[in-house]
């Protein structure tokens, strides 16, 4: 592999505001799990579980909320060069991917409801890969729009060179 396409850590971080969006998501997930545990254990009395088990589940969920958003921010990265798009995602298991410009089929821009409140968006790069699309989430929405334009121009230029 040439140095330009080595499987390395991409240089760009997502927006620092992504941590807040991920925090809200982790809080919502944890709240749903805790409500389900309380309903099953105490309200409907389906299983006989000590209070300390519920407390341990609650502490585990609190740790999840405290750690995961920051951890994801440290891991999630992206980069665009003249020849490829690089991404790194995950929080427990990490995935690094490279999409050569010549393989890009579509570039999509999306804003989720919570992300929109914080001025964030996602860019999805679809390729001919069986591994699926590359997603760069947690970008400032202005930077995301610029990235869509940049990738579209670069992919089109590569396509034009091939013909």
Radius of gyration: 20 Å
Straight-line distance between termini: 24 Å
Apparent shape: elongated
Structural class: alpha+beta
Order of helices and strands: EHHEEEEHEEH
User: How many runs of DSSP E, i.e. beta strands?
Assistant: 7
- Main β-sheet description: 4 strands, antiparallel
Helix % is 40-55%
Lateral arrangement of strands in the main beta sheet: 1-2-3-4
The count of helical stretches stands at 4
| Mean pLDDT over the residues | 90
Unreliable stretches, pLDDT < 50, 5 or more residues?
none
Strand proportion = 15-25%
Overall description:
It is built from four helices and seven strands, in the order βααββββαββα. The strands form two sheets. Strands 1-2-3-4 form a four-stranded antiparallel β-sheet. It has a three-stranded antiparallel β-sheet with strand order 5-6-7. Helix 1 runs antiparallel to helix 2. The chain has helices spanning 18-43, 51-75, 113-117, 141-162; strands at 12-13, 77-80, 84-89, 95-100, 104-110, 120-127, 134-140. The radius of gyration is 20 Å and the shape is elongated. Strand 3 (84-89) and strand 4 (95-100) form a beta hairpin. The relative contact order is 0.16. The longest helix has 26 residues, at 18-43. Helix content is 48%, strand content 25%. The chain is an alpha+beta fold.
Break the fold down into its secondary structure elements and pairings.
Blueprint: E1 12-13, H1 18-43, H2 51-75, E2 77-80, E3 84-89, E4 95-100, E5 104-110, H3 113-117, E6 120-127, E7 134-140, H4 141-162
Antiparallel strand pairs: 1-2, 2-3, 3-4, 5-6, 6-7
Short description, anyone?
By secondary structure, the chain is of the alpha+beta class. It is 48% helix and 25% strand. It is elongated and about 70 Å long.
């Amino acid at each position: 592999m040439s140095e330009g396409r080595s499987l390395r850590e991409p240089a760009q971080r997502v927006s620092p505001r992504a941590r807040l969006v991920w925090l809200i998501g982790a809080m919502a997930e944890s709240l749903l799990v805790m409500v389900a545990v309380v309903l099953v254990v105490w309200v409907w009395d389906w299983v006989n579980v000590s209070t300390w088990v519920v407390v341990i589940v609650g502490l585990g969920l609190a740790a999840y909320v405290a750690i995961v958003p920051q951890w994801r921010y440290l891991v999630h990265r992206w980069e665009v060069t003249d020849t490829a798009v690089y991404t790194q995602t995950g929080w427990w298991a990490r995935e690094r991917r490279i999409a050569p410009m010549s393989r890009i089929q579509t570039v999509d821009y999306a804003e989720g409801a919570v992300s929109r409140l914080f001025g964030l968006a996602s860019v999805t790069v679809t390729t001919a890969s069986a591994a699926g699309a590359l997603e760069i989430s947690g970008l400032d929405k202005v930077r995301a729009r610029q990235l869509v334009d940049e990738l579209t121009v670069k992919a089109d230029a590569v396509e034009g060179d091939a013909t």
